[in-house]
Amino acid sequence: MPTIRLFAELRRFTGASEVTVQGSTVGEALNALSQSLGDAVREKLLPDGRLPQELIVLLNGRNVQFLGGLDTPVAETDRIAIVPVVGGG
User: Cα(86)–Cα(7) distance, rounded to whole angstroms?
Assistant: First the structure.
């Protein structure tokens, strides 16, 4: 089962920095996470069934937008990181 590492505000929904989920693709893994945590997380992760621009999703350190998006396959030992985009000035 892939492990999802959470950063910033997403950690407060789980109380943990890492969560193990079921799924054979990035999309399935994110859906499994959002199903277990409820509507508030679902709105942050997949508000319209796509990855929002406010989040960067990495699979083993590589941005999934450049791999296959939500259809990117994952293995049991893979690590997914969800990193909110932070802006400042």
Answer: 11
How many residues does the structure list for the chain?
89
How many domains is the chain built from?
1
Question: Rounded to a whole number, what is the largest CA-CA distance in the chain?
Answer: 39
Pairing of strands 3-6, 79-84: parallel
Distance between CA atoms of 57 and 61, rounded to whole angstroms?
9
Range of the domain at 15: 3-84
CATH of the domain at 58: 3.10.20.30
**pLDDT tens for residues 6-63?**
877 777 776 778 888 899 999 999 888 887 777 667 777 777 778 888 888 999 999 9
DSSP class of residue 38 equals -
Q: What is the pTM of this model?
A: 0.83
